[in-house]
Amino acid sequence: MFHATMAAAIDGARTLAQMDELSRQVWQGHGGGALDDVQAQALAERLHARRSAIREGIVPVGIPAGRVSLFPPRRSVASPDKAASRDRRRLLACSGPMPPALAARFTTGQLAVLRIVADEVAAKGVCGLCVDAIAARAGVCRRLAQGAIRLAEGDGLLTVEERRHEGRRSSTNLVRVISREWQAWMRRVGRAKAGGIGCKEIHPTDSRVLTSGKTEASDTLRKLPTRQGRSHGSGSRGPFRVADRSSAMR
After folding, report:
1. Do residues 176 and 89 both lie within one domain?
2. Which of 120, 146, 181, 199 is in the most buried spot, having the most CB atoms within 10 Å?
3. Domain count along the chain
4. What is the pTM assigned to this prediction?
């Protein structure tokens, strides 16, 4: 009687919680003598088959059919101008984002990524940009940006704080520079930009450029006075005076 009741209850169960409760009752009945070994084994096999059928019918709420995640798949993004991205990547890498001893460990693309991170840290104290934004500014792909940050983290140059949220989209990671050499380098570069070290003000000549390409002095410049020369009449009397003096000496 107990065996038939439990078999009917197992066939009518609809949730995994009901299956767990029925399994507990089956083994309690076996321990109390209501079921022998053969009956308990048969009910256990029926429980296992019914539990597998229930699990196959469970569909995650909110996830469309054929998709493994609730969020839409990530779109592959390509640079619209690869030549401009290449030039920007090289320019950032050659701008000195970190000390030479540290920069020697990274490639051109990785240095461009670390330059973007260093600029954000210098301006805000922490880099909260997403990986796609860092990659776009550095002129590299998403994978290279992730690899550069992980490599720098493995070398002990920076830390990455993950901000995961269950059931919703996670926030961007927070990247902080912890290397003292790198921090000193960033402070020195910041002072050079703010104070203009090594620069000297230049006051060029006030000149006016004409449309024809010639230059003309401005009105503020004074013209030098022209040198007053002797007139033609006064100059012609010079030889006669010399002749008169020679005749007088005779």
Report:
1. yes
2. 120
3. 2
4. 0.51
